[in-house]
Structure prediction request, 419 residues.
Amino acid sequence: MKVDILLGLQWGDEGKGKIVDVLTPNYDVVTRFQGGPNAGHTLEFNNQKYVLRSVPSGIFQGEKVNIIGNGVVLDPALFKVEAEALSKSGHDITKRLLISKKAHLILPTHRLLDAAYEAAKGDSKVGTTGKGIGPTYTDKISRNGLRIGDILVNFEKKYEELTTRHKQILQSLNFEYSLESIEKEWFEGIEYLKQFKFIDSEYEINRYLKNGKNVLAEGAQGTMLDVDFGSYPFVTSSNTISAGACTGLGIAPNKIGDVFGIFKAYCTRVGSGPFPTELHDEIGEKIGRLGHEFGAVTGRKRRCGWIDLVALKYAVMINGVTKLIMMKSDVLDTFETIKACVAYRINGQETTHFPFETDADIEPIYVEMKGWNTDMTKMQSENEFPKEFKNYINFLEKELEVPIQIVSVGPDRDQTIVR
Ligand code: GDP
Ligand code: IMO
Ligand code: MG
Prediction:
């Protein structure tokens, strides 16, 4: 068997959580392969809303196995809050969630370093989620990090060594902080974690595949936030793309099956960095209002704009997307005109390449289409789609050269149309 991957094609928040939940009945195992609590994946069903940070979005669909893979960075304190809230709402995850021994730990001082580095950058700050993601991956790559498996052996000493180094850096940055209360919560999180099974997830996942089980890998963030291919340096610190599932789970490239690429019918971004189709007018405001575009983690207002096919084509290429999923189509239900960016004009030159320079002055070149002006939120089949919406789908499929298999018309699990 192969691992199917579901990942974001834009700047995150495409609706990954909702669709992983919808697809989970087809799978035996759901696993996260990168990122950490910078993610906020929202699911809605039975009039309940859940936001998952580190726990895979397959946790609500029966007795599926859920795995936090080695590529993930985990904050024990935030994980405890998340797991306890799930338990309170009747979803005990202790028996269904396995954690890789090789996943890295986010320390309280990683969070402080995240804040200190952002403060030092001033106006050119990334606008991170403040969860310590960058400093934790930095320690991983520079071979200083602490992993889940370290909790079991001589942990206090390793913790002391790493935090001493962090404190020196914080001091050199003149960053004022107080560690006591967050450190206390963090160690409570470490104790809480011990009831979960720590595994060699690479062996486990490959064993599932060998035994004919279906595995779904759930991406976090989005392709344009990938540390190599995103709008660097305004990116996250992991490989969010399909290749990241190989290193983040320990599966070989020839074990990848379908790659589900998920995107919004428009585009959003939270934090700093280039966003060529961003709208600073009342249309952008309206998209944000109707789409409730506020960060699930930070509550920050998301920047909004039209769909960007230059960036989307790039993302389809990098990920080897085999099936597309279009989200939040209903948010565009009341627009007279819909626009799609098909090229950029940079220094008077037209191009369909996403530029290297983050400060490039990009003028988007748009194709305009007539809006559908129809409420689609109660539709159950594609036969009900208005003509103009069908045109929009056909146009996107032609441009992206990949079929759109799922269309989402609302946040609820039931507002999902499989074509
Ligand atoms: P993720 O990080 O990719 O899982 O996405 P988020 O949960 O951060 O953001 C997606 C938001 O859109 C959530 O509030 C969802 O409940 C909501 N949502 C998902 N699909 C749809 C849809 O088709 N229509 C509308 N209106 N909202 C949706
Ligand atoms: P999900 O999984 C949207 C953005 C931050 C910032 C940049 C770096 O819910 O789609 P970080 O804290 O990772 O160092 O921040 O990446 N970012 C996200 N934006 N959705 C996310 O996750 C994000 N995770 C990080 O806003 O610009
Ligand atoms: Mg999100």
Observations:
- The first strand starts at residue 3 and ends at 8.
- The CA atoms of residues 376 and 384 lie 8 Å apart.
